[in-house]
Amino acid sequence: MTIEALVTLKSENVPAVGRERLRLLEAVAREGSISAGARAIGITYKAAWDGLDAMANLFGQPLLIRRAGGRAGGGATLTPTGHSVIEAFRRMEAEMVRVLRTIEPELAEAGVSPLDLVSGFLMKTSARNAISGSIINIVSDALSAEVEIAVSPETTIYSVVTHASMEELGLCTGRSVTLLIKAPFVAIATGKAAPKTSARNCIRGTVSRCETSTVSAEIVLDIGAGKTLALSITAHSAKSLGLAPGKPAFALFDAAHVIIAIN
Description:
12 strands; Arc Repressor Mutant, subunit A; five-stranded antiparallel β-sheet; CATH 2.40.50.100; Molybdate_resp_trans_reg; molybdenum; DNA-binding transcription factor activity; 3 domains; 8 helices; LysR_HTH_N; 263 residues; 31% strand; alpha+beta
């Protein structure tokens, strides 16, 4: 059996970025728009947006520059970071092939498949949001710790973990982490002024997408620095709030609903 070497870029507990999403990025660059790139590789427009949002959140920088114009008239070009990600991925993939071809005969003689070396290493998560950031402050007592994470120059997110988890994960100021937040845990409020709320996190953003079905709606907020935050609400709520692209809004969620993952 011929084994193919594939590169997957990820952080622990964060949705992986592999060949398919890199193909999407290349297609968008080649076709000049997200909708055309999605058609070129045979996925839906929504799936393309989800993939691009995930990549921007994981790498922590915008990979695309988008031009206004809607699904038909808009366009997109790669940022320097986007080009660098593609180039680095292809170089790593070529190097992986070289290494695999070197060790495969030795492993075969020992009755070991290269797949055995990596099975179980990649973990998937059901959390819709995976956002990279850096710890800027920790306040702790004997039982718990509140961790403050900067995800952009303007935006910080708070997470509450147990004291034991803080020590086990080795959390400290300056450490890079990934935050996992399930979309149903996020509420939304509209308006230009921050609402009064008991939620520890109140993140300012702008609605970039609003996908509505008969019962539910998925809202994606642009929270700056190329990062997004998705949330799930009812279709009735989305309609009553008048949610539409370009509308200012706030994402509200408890610190206890923010999971911290490390590399």
